[in-house]
Structures are given as structure tokens and as C-alpha cells.
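Attaching the record inline, Q. Sequence:
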Amino acid sequence: MFNYGIHGHGDLMSYIVPMKALIILLLTATGGSLGGVAYYYQARATSLNNQVSNLNNNASSLSDQIAALKAEIANLTNQISRLQTTNSQLNQSSLQIQSLETQLANATSQLQSLETQLADEITKVQSLEASFNTQLDSLKSQPAPRSVRDRSTPVSSFSAPSPTMGRPLPIR
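Structure, as predicted:
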């Protein structure tokens, strides 16, 4: 039947030469493929390294932005605190102003009451003055009593009754 065995030295050589050619051919093909695969993976590794570098740069930039935002937040927090303090002071001032306005309104009301009382008093004094002038005119128009005429006091110099006379003059 079939005899696959190697029977002699010549047979061995005839078997080795085609095997060498086949191995060289396989190595050449495989070497080219391995070189291509190695090139592909080297390019892929370079691309990934560039992506990692870009991500690191982005992370660094984002860290800087975060630090800037934190500083801005701290600044805004300080501004808010100052504004709250100012607002509290303004509220206190507003309460003081309201209190002063109430005091002013009370003082104005008291002043108006005093003005009314003063006007009433002025009216009373004017009325008394008019009454007094009427009585005085009445006295001037009456003849002087005999005892006053004997003293030779002119009637025109007689201006008012003495407060020691005792009783008020009747109003006519």
C-alpha cells in the first residue's frame, strides 16, 4: 500500500528541500504579517498614548477651571455675606427711620394741638382786649367822679382803673 516512511538518504533530502522552502515561505509570509500586526499595534499604542495625553491635559485644564470656580464661589460667598450684613444694617436703619417717623408724627400732632390751643388763647385774649377797650372807652366817655376832678387830673390822661379798686367793671 502506501508507504510514507523515509527509506533512504536520498529520499530524506528530497523531503527536506521542499520542507525548507515551505518553512521559508511560511516564515516570510508570517514575518510580513507579524510586521504588519506589529506596525498596527504600535500605531494603535501611539494613538492611545496621544489620547491619554489629551485626557491628562483636559483633566489638568478642568482642574484649573474647578479651582477658578471655587475661588469665584468663595468671592461670591464673601459678597453675599457683606450684602447680608449691609441688608441687616439697612433693615435696622429702616426700623429707626420708622420709629423717628412715628415720633415726628406724634410731635406734629402735639404741635398742631398746641397751635390750636394757642389760637384759642389768642382769640380769648383778643376778646378780652376788645372788651377791655370797650369798657375803657365807656369810662373815658363818662364824666369823672368829683374827687378825681378836684385833683385836677385831666380825663385824657386817665387810662385804666387801678388794680386795687377791688371789683371788675361791668361789661356793657
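Residues 9-141 form the longest helix (133 residues). The mean pLDDT is 81.

More tomorrow.
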